[in-house]
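Most newcomers find our protein records easier to grasp once they have seen one. The structure tokens are whole numbers drawn from a learned vocabulary of backbone shapes. The record below serves as our worked example for the rest of this section.
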Amino acid sequence: MDTATHFVIGLSLAGLAYVDPAVAASPTLAAAVLLGTVIGSQAPDFDGLLRFKSNALYVKNHRGITHSLPFLVIWTALISGILSLLFSGVPSGHIVLWTGIAVCLHVFSDLFNTYGTQAFRPVTEKWISWNIIHIFDPFIFTLHAMAVLLWSTGAVHPAPLFTVVYILTVFYYIWRTGAHSMRTREVMRLDESRKPGERYFVIPTISYNKWHVVKSHPDGSYQIGVLNGHTLEWRKHAVTESHPAVEHSRKHPDVEAFLYFSSFAVAEVEPLPWGYVVRWADVRYRHRRQYPFVAVLVMDKNYQPINTYVGWLSSKKMNKRLSINSG
């Protein structure tokens, strides 16, 4: 989920906490729980601070160890421990409970997105992404935001209000999971060129009727398409170019970080009079005919790095940022 959605869910969890009689009876405890759920709903994404050191470090570690099994406990203990000190005299067990729910709900909801998490680390470092919910879901955000606004007016008691909100949220997730499963089967049925060994990844967009489709071939290439309504259209065959520049780029730390995260990366080489530009792109992310999640390495004729970038950027801005031109 995006930061804004995590934030409103943190607020709505504070409203749901009023089903706890101790929270409902104590304004002081309710305030502590509010801070716990809001901070807990953001805590796993504190790895965003790695951007200040380098984009490559951020790409390699975002939604990694901070979303892992041990950190579910660490974040909960750290946040609730500090809050228990600040709000002395309130029953700390309730702070631990609701803070822990917020932390776990953050990680659990991130599993439904395409970006994924290393939620089962240290058992496995595999990136787990279920491709069911878009990173920003208008229904989830609007439902929780409107409920928080309604709560703020004092017109409705938070316990029944947010009980209904979370029941609706659970059913929404169930519906989206079923829709994703049906769409995946539909893509397999519609693809007349389907061959043994091919795998399909159906990826949500902000529109309920439109899904991005990635078909993985056994040779490591990808077929990129879109399912619009009940129409499947293949738009591009993406394959990593065979070129010495690609092999040299794999050794660069920024590209290594990108490939550690993405198992859907494809490289293209642009030869220039003075060297090469190698563009690695994650083919799961397509926006206006471009693939904005990239690792780009600019090299001279001897394959020595000149400039590099890892992260989200359009091709036009990328060329400007890296000073790429044909001169």
